[in-house]
Structures are given as structure tokens and as C-alpha cells.
Amino acid sequence: MCSGDGDCRPLGFLLGLPFALLSLLISIVGVVIWIVGLLLTCICPCCLCLTVIVEMALELVKAPIHVMEWFTSQIPC
What we know:
Elements: H1 10-43, H2 48-61, H3 63-74
């Protein structure tokens, strides 16, 4: 991933790709949890524990992005 200041790390991107694919599978699980949690929150809005589960599911959905950013930041040019 390249940022605007010319800081390009293609090696980190390639090394992180298998881990990003694994985290993509985890994010699919997060989407399922998120949808079920949202439906249950709509049915019973008084359950505050469900909102915590929905927030955790959203973090699972963002996992591939976090993994790729971490890998590209670890590999020097």
C-alpha cells in the first residue's frame, strides 16, 4: 500500500496477503454476527449486551484492513 509521501512497501503487501485472506474469512463471520446482532437489537432494544457484540463484529469486519496496514508498516522499503 502506498501513502501520499512516496512510502511504498509492496513486499509487505505481498507477505501480508495470506494473512489478509484469513482475516477476510474472519470478517465474513463478523458480518454474520453483525446482521444477527442487529436483528436481535431491533427486536429487543433493551439488551445492551447485544450492542457490544455488534461493535465487536464491526471490528472483525475491519480486520483485513488492519492486517494489511500492520504488515506494510513492518516491512521497510
